[in-house]
Amino acid sequence: SNMTVSSAPGKVYLFGEHAVVYGEPAVPCAIERRATVSVETREDSRVRVSAPDLSLDGFTVEYGGNGDERPDVNVSEGLVEAGIEYIDVAVEQARDAANAPNAGFDVTVESDIPLGAGLGSSAAVVVASIDAATRELGHPLDPEELAARAYRAEYEVQDGQASRADTFCCAVGGAVRVEGDDCQHIDAPSLPFVVGFDGGAGDTGKLVAGVRSLRDEYDFAADTVESIGDLVRRGESVLAEADPTDHPPEDVLAELGRLMDFDHGLLEALGVSSRTLDNMVWAAREAGAHGAKLTGAGGGGCIVALDETAETETALRYTAECEDVFRAELARDGVRVED
Ligand code: MEV
User: Fold this and answer.
1) Residue 230 is a catalytic residue
2) Domain end: 187, 218, 253, which one?
3) pLDDT digits (tens), the chain, 339 positions
4) What end-to-end distance do the CA atoms of the chain give, in Å?
5) If we measure between CA atoms, which residue out of 287, 284, 228 comes closest to residue 259?
6) Would you say the C-alpha torsion 299, 181, 193, 19 has a positive or negative sign?
7) Catalytic: which of 131, 166, 198, 307?
8) Are residues 131 and 164 in the same domain?
9) Measuring from atom 6 of ligand 1, which residue has the nearest CA?
10) Does the C-beta of 208 come closer than 6 Å to ligand 1?
11) Which residues bind ATP (predicted)?
């Protein structure tokens, strides 16, 4: 057979991370940074994975892949092992969906989403892998089933720590509203995101636990979480009123930006920011961004700013704490076929 190729986007939180854990709504948005997965079936039931940019030097691993023989990865780098695990569970989901338990694959993974930076790189790899493998087996899935299977795959690798938001947003694309287990696509104008990455990553489990204990101890911390929910609802109505087919007008960007600033302040109060994240946020604001906030679990990792000009990108490039910066428009497409 010929190769089957799928890509899937990463994501940022426009609003609502952390508060979403307590049932408040959140709005993750897919961004034009993608993982691309090429799949070709094999004569045997083995799985061979090449991932030229999932680690510094890239790697290739081949294993039996028949359920009993798991990938034997003799690489000490955690991200590489995690990368293989994600592809392994994705392959299992594809075999199960297509009722082809013995299907073997050659898989190539490429990604321009920074790894472990809270941008949903693992969700993108899993979604694109399941999509390409099921299509290769002649059993394409609709985006909802794809999202559900990708969620199960992430859940397995992350020991039950996965959120539905990442895989859903990545499968359907655009802006998403998450509340509890309910995920829905919502209309949004073309948002001019700029992402700054400090090269690090926070410990999501610890950060979530920290917010939980503040919330248990202080009513005003619980109120802070509820205030995040209030600003998310406000942000949703701003998005709903904007023309989704167009670039957002200044007043829409200004209000979304103000809400992002507010959200960052509340997250900072809840203890999940860091000096590097704050410095990048302030560099973006001083460069004239409409607003800026940390995105994801915090503690380190990425910020997201709104700026349709090049000013924020340039300012972040000259910010010592910022290791990588890129512009990333809202991605309209979720998972998609690549030729
Ligand atoms: C992490 O990307 C987002 C959090 O809200 C945790 C979660 O929703 O699982 C901090």
Assistant:
1) no
2) 187
3) 589 999 999 999 999 999 999 999 999 999 999 999 999 999 999 999 888 766 544 567 777 655 555 555 544 344 455 578 889 999 999 999 999 999 999 999 999 998 878 899 999 999 999 999 999 999 999 999 999 999 999 999 888 878 899 999 999 999 999 999 999 999 999 999 999 999 998 999 999 999 999 999 999 999 999 999 999 999 999 999 999 888 899 999 999 999 999 999 999 999 999 999 999 999 999 999 999 999 999 999 999 999 999 999 999 999 999 999 999 999 999 999 998
4) 14
5) 228
6) negative
7) 166
8) yes
9) 18
10) yes
11) 114-124
Assess if residue 338 is contained within a domain. Answer: no
Whole-angstrom Cα distance, residue 83 to residue 154? 11
Within this chain, do residues 19 and 151 fall inside the same structural domain, yes or no? yes
Residue of the CA atom closest to atom 7 of ligand 1:
163
The total number of structural domains in the chain stands at: 2
The domain of 170 spans 4-187
123, 150 in Cβ contact below 8 A?
yes
Task: Judge contact between 179 and 25, C-beta under 8 A.
Answer: yes
* ipTM of model: 0.97
Residue 334 lies in a domain: no
Counting every residue written for the chain, the total comes to 339
* Same structural domain, 178 and 200: no
From the CB of 155, is ligand 1 less than 6 Å away? no
Q: How far is the CA of 296 from the centre of ligand 1 (A)?
A: 6
- The verdict on the CB of residue 183 being under 6 Å from ligand 1 is no
CA-proximal residue: ligand 1, atom 9 (nearest): 163
121 annotated ligand-binding residue: yes
Tell whether ligand 1 has an atom less than 6 A from the beta carbon of residue 297: yes
| Model confidence, pTM | 0.92
Instruction: Answer yes or no: do 207 and 261 share one domain.
Output: yes
Q: Is 111 annotated as a binding residue?
A: no
